[in-house]
Amino acid sequence: MLLCVPMRTEGVPFIFDPKYLDVKRLHVDRPPTLIVMEDEVDRLVAAWRRERPDLDVEPLEVLSRVSRLARHLDRARRLAFSEHELEPWEFDVLTSLRRAGAPYQLSPGQLLTQTLVTSGTMTNRIDRLAKKGLVERLPDPSDRRGVLVRLTDEGRDRADQALAGLLDQERAILAELSRAQRGELAALLRQLTAPFDNVPG
User: Which end of the chain is least crowded, N or C, by CB within 10 Å?
Assistant: First the structure.
């Protein structure tokens, strides 16, 4: 099938024949924005290469972007949590209990392991969450001197709602990437972080 398009060459109508179109040559695997878009790290790296050509600044191309992305994620987290009247540390404690499964309780020591804070800090946080009615302390049946920290119904609802809000924010951050690209990026980041997460002791 021949298509006539409104173009003329020296007064003769231009005839377009699709059989001469090599579609594969026009295929682009990545979104055009990934090809042409420059970001702040590109400008930073270019400046350092100009000022310090004696240094290999290639690590900045990866880790400066990770650092900047972490700041964007921190803002997104705070926005998601503030909509449910939670601080980031409150979300961390509540979701640690939520992930434990029914009856959604852990010892203070287990919470310390999951949130990486000091014992005094954790005690203070449990006090504040209990005062807000989001957790409660219960006697530990396996330790007469111990206690367990359990989510209240309100605490569980608040954790679930805040998590849904956070995932909405995170999906927006990743929207430019395809599912395959997200999987590839996750695998590369895992390769970087696994050695730090598996250090003995």
Answer: C
Alpha-carbon distance of 91 to 159, in angstroms, equals 6
* The two three-digit tokens of residue 59, written as one number: 């690590």
Q: What are phi and psi of 111, to 5 degrees?
A: -65, -35
Contacts of 6 (CB under 8 A, 6+ apart): none
- Segment holding 179, helix H or strand E: helix 179-197
The Cβ of residue 83 has, within 10 Å, a number of other Cβ atoms equal to 13
* pTM, 2 dp: 0.71
- For the chain, the C-alpha Rg in angstroms (whole number) is 27
Interval 118-134: pLDDT, tens: 889 999 999 999 999 99
CATH architecture of 88-160: Orthogonal Bundle (1.10)
CB 126 within 8 A of CB 137: yes
In the chain, where are the structural domains located?
A: 88-160
Give the number of C-alpha atoms closer than 13 A to the C-alpha of residue 81, restricted to the C-beta side: 17
| Angle (CA) 102 105 108, round 5° | 160
Structure tokens at 34: 């990934």
Each residue's pLDDT tens digit, 32-74 = 444 557 889 999 999 999 999 999 999 999 999 999 999 999 9
